[in-house]
UniProtKB/TrEMBL annotation:
Gene field: hutP
Organism: Alkalihalophilus lindianensis
Name used for this protein in its record: Hut operon positive regulatory protein
NCBIfam families: PRK03065.1
Lineage summary: Bacteria, Bacillati, Bacillota, Bacilli, Bacillales
Subunit structure: Homohexamer.
Family: Belongs to the HutP family.
Pfam families assigned: HutP
Keyword terms of this UniProt record: Activator, Histidine metabolism, RNA-binding, Transcription, Transcription regulation
Keyword Cell membrane carried by entry: no
Amino acid sequence: MALSNERRIGRHAIMLLLSDDSEQELATLKQSNWNGCTGKVGSMEAHKVVAAIETAAKKNGIIQPNIYRETHALYHAIIEALHGVTRGQVQLGSVHRTVGLSFAVLRGNPYENELEGDWIAVSLYGTIGAPVKGSEHEAIGLGINHI
């Protein structure tokens, strides 16, 4: 069950997120049977961040909307990534915080053995802070879950 160095899903999700050319990065990942998407979301409400990422993943065919375990795996990866951005307290508006985030969702098999199946990674990068322009700082988060 060796984790292949070339197939580290978290690293690839972060590289996709921070890439200056995400379309080229996605094309390269697709050659390895990986599927991904990128997007942006800003909100004072965590559920809106979750909904934006989930919608993008469904719209881009990363997960099948009618398969519960796929939506469930994505949800847990999103929440784990939000924990990184919010420093462990997934609260935004209720504590006067807002986020402006770019996100990447990546699905693939990070193992040498194909029988290990697919995993999903969500990476987030952007700003978090008081809902006043200039009162924010950078943050990054990563969540990985098996499907």
